[in-house]
Amino acid sequence: MAKKSLPVSESTYFILAALLDGPLHGHGIIKHVLGMSEGRVKLPVGTLYGALDRLAGGGLIAVEREEVVDGRPRRYFRLTDDGTRLVLTEAERMRQAASVVTGRALPGSAFVPLTSPAAAGLALGRRPVWRPALT
Q: Record's Pfam families (predicted)?
């Protein structure tokens, strides 16, 4: 059983999330993470392989297979059951934490909760009109 505590770092979360779709090699993980994070999480190669070694040591990922491409070794990593449980648990923890904020509008912000009537207007391309709350 993995000995990993929550919450996990953002880069670890995205590495595990990238492997949800199946085994990937290092460069594939880097590209997947960059796309999923919309360019926010950039993993240098040294950082990635350090993280992969820690995750493998913790039983969260495993080497699926190895091959040689253009004379260079390439390892494909996959999630273990513990890794899958961890990333899904972390996703749920973040969803619950985000709902504290996304469930209501914040005074003085341009934030519109998705469940509000104003959000329906945004979905139709209308800009929200902000009015002070009546007390």
A: PadR
Residue 11: HSE in the Cβ half-sphere, 13 Å Cα cutoff: 15
Structure-token match 């492997």, residue found: 19
Residue that wins the pLDDT comparison between 128 and 56: 56
Asked if the peptide bond before residue 7 counts as cis, ω within 30 degrees of 0, the response is yes
- 8 Å CB contact between 30 and 7: no
**Average of per-residue pLDDT across 35-54:** 93
Predicted TM-score (pTM) above 0.85: no
* Secondary structure (3-state) at 128: coil
Q: State pLDDT tens for residues 77-116.
A: 999 999 999 999 999 999 999 888 887 766 666 655 555 5
Residue range 10-95 in CATH 3.10.100.10 = no
| CA dihedral of residues 105, 111, 113, 119 (deg, nearest 10) | 130
Copy the structure tokens of residue 102: 């996304």
Could you tell me the CA-to-CA distances from 42 to 30, 46, 105 in Å, in that order? 7, 12, 31
Of 38, 15, 39, 14, the closest CA to residue 26 belongs to 15
